[in-house]
């Protein structure tokens, strides 16, 4: 049997043309558009590099070696690979014939040093007031959905929020690829798995979620909601599993709830739409909206409370914090500020009863 370290070194040798970017902490993503075209993302901006592979065969060999390392299967009949590099970086690769111009590979970097709330506040991604309120909401076990587009920082922000979970709690994390870096001592990490070449061995997020409910979780963290597992999470939230955290792709808070609704309908649970909407409104307490701006920066744009559902008016939302825009500076950076709207969350009295100080600013500040 090949030692793990030797296997890792062999794999990295296949990716030698981009190794300098995999070691560069300023690079957040490496995009390989065929063997002769490599882009990287730094500070939210794309730049083309001079990196090249020897040819399509060399890049395809790297992808196949990665598949072997990850225990996955990739071929012309199954040309899409989801896997992780030895350092935890997430890889999505597509081979011909699905990629007619050669293998396409995207590597989302994994950083062992997780972000902190203080860093986000220092960068202007979040206000100090909003940070205090969010920390209090996590501590008092509100169900929070982090929404945003691709590359908007959803997973990173979810990781930041998770730091405010009580270290005495048993936390079970469900992900497609282990990315979250929780700091608490009692964390169980579960990972889904696609089927092999014979369509065997698949482990879905729904499978893991059902197992989780029998594992005595104090808190459930789901890396991303992508499909029918949405109904399981909703049911858990309304049946006593408070403090759940997850992410979803959506542009605005209302879109996050609508997408959750759509994904719940993808399950095999035959629930009337009206009943589903009432359950979603009861399950999700807050939506935190993230965005990647035109200058490449990432920030929180809304902290929104879900206050109910009306058959005529739909989901009723109330913004606690909203980002206000004021143009650009001389360097092209977007100028904005996350401001408090003056609204008070419904759980305020519960926070006070639990001895949790939300740190709400004065109305109008």
Description:
The protein folds into two domains: 4-108, Beta-Lactamase; 117-353, P-loop containing nucleotide triphosphate hydrolases (Rossmann fold), CATH 3.40.50. It is built from eleven helices and 15 strands. The protein has helices spanning 4-14, 19-22, 56-70, 117-123, 128-139, 154-162, 205-212, 229-237, 253-265, 273-283, 348-353, and strands at residues 27-33, 38-42, 45-48, 80-84, 90-94, 104-108, 144-148, 171-175, 187-191, 219-222, 245-249, 286-292, 298-310, 314-328, 334-340. The strands form two sheets. The protein has a nine-stranded mixed β-sheet with strand order 9-8-10-11-7-12-13-14-15, with helices on both faces. Strands 3-2-1-6-5-4 form a six-stranded antiparallel β-sheet, covered by helices on one side. The longest helix has 15 residues, at 56-70. It starts with a helix and ends in a 12-residue tail after the last helix.
């Amino acid at each position: 049997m090949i030692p793990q370290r030797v296997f890792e070194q062999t794999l990295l040798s296949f990716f030698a043309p981009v190794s300098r970017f995999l070691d560069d902490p300023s690079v957040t993503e490496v995009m390989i558009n065929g063997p002769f075209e490599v882009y990287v993302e730094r500070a939210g901006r794309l730049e083309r590099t001079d990196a090249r592979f020897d040819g399509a065969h060399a890049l395809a060999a790297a992808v196949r070696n990665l598949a072997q390392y990850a225990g996955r299967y990739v071929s012309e009949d199954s040309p899409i690979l989801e896997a992780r590099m030895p350092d935890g970086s997430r890889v999505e690769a597509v081979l011909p014939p699905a990629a007619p111009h050669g293998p396409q590979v995207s590597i989302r970097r994994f950083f062992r040093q997780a972000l902190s709330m203080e860093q986000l506040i220092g960068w202007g991604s979040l206000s100090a007031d909003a940070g205090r309120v969010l920390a209090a909401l996590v501590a008092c076990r509100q169900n929070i959905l982090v929404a945003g587009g691709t590359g908007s920082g959803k997973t990173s922000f979810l990781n930041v929020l998770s730091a405010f979970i009580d270290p005495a709690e048993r936390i079970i994390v469900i992900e497609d690829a282990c990315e979250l870096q929780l700091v608490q001592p009692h964390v169980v990490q579960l990972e889904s798995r696609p089927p092999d070449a014979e369509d065997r061995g698949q482990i879905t997020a729904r499978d893991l979620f059902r197992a989780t409910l029998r594992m005595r979780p104090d808190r459930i963290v789901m890396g991303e909601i992508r499909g029918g597992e949405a109904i399981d999470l909703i049911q858990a939230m309304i049946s006593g599993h408070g403090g759940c955290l997850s992410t979803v792709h959506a542009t605005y808070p209302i879109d996050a709830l609508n997408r959750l609704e759509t994904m719940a309908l993808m399950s095999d649970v035959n629930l009337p739409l009206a009943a589903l909407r009432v359950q979603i409104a009861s399950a999700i307490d807050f939506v935190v909206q993230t965005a990647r701006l035109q200058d490449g920066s990432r920030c929180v744009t809304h902290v929104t409370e879900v206050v109910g559902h009306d058959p005529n008016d739909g989901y009723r939302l109330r913004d606690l914090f909203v980002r206000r825009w004021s143009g650009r500076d001389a360097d092209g950076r977007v100028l904005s500020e996350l401001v408090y709207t003056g609204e008070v969350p419904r759980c305020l009295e519960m926070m006070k009863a639990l001895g949790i100080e939300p740190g709400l600013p004065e109305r109008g500040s």
